Amino acid sequence: MDKTWYDALHPELEKPYFKKLKEFLVSESKSHTVYPATKDIYSWSRLTPLDKVKVVVIGQDPYHDVGQAHGLAFSVLPPTKPPPSLRNIFKQMATDFPSFTMPKTGDLTPLAQSGVLFLNSALTVRAHKANSHAGKGWEMLTAEALRVVAQREDSPGVVFLAWGLHAQKTCDSLKIDESKHLVLRSAHPSPLSAHRGFLGNGHFKRANEWIKERYGPEAEIDWTVLSR
């Protein structure tokens, strides 16, 4: 875990629920494959240090098939092709920014390094079994991570992208100060719901407009970095 996050979350790591979570993961790993790899569980923290966060994308559960999850919500490493939800995210980026071209890879690392925190509520999953590590304790840690972002006194504010009911409920539970932060809500990018409000939501363009106003024009996120 990156030091900026470790310093902020260290009290959580000492609590009984987290120690119980670690015991569960050790036991689970002995009898099942767990994704992502141990070295990648906290890659979100290393790629997007706490003091660099300008946008938060809230996911739910890591991908559970081979060669997918690597610690960033919605992201996959090559040679894995972008899954359907990520393709819809790319479609909306292209709508908001005409210079954006569909990437061949689903690796969102360049955006994470630019200040976009891609954080799932649960940070691990059993192979081929969606939501299998839900309710084991991760949600308490990641909720605290989001709370830390929302309560940073030295920040001009952050854009929270809440796609789907899970992300929206997560934001609601945090009681985010929307006079300081921008919370953009819409349907989830999944093919099951993308046409009910995700596609056409303009979130990436709206996020940049808000960041420009709060941080200055040089601070906008270059969403097209993925298509280079």
Automatic annotation (TrEMBL):
One of its GO terms (cellular component) is nucleus. It comes from the Eukaryota. Pfam families: UDG (PF03167). Its EC number is 3.2.2.27. The keyword RNA-binding does not apply. InterPro entries: UDG_fam1, Ura-DNA_Glyclase_AS, Uracil-DNA_glycosylase-like, Uracil-DNA_glycosylase-like_sf. The keyword Transmembrane helix does not apply. Belongs to the uracil-DNA glycosylase (UDG) superfamily. UNG family. This is Uracil-DNA glycosylase.
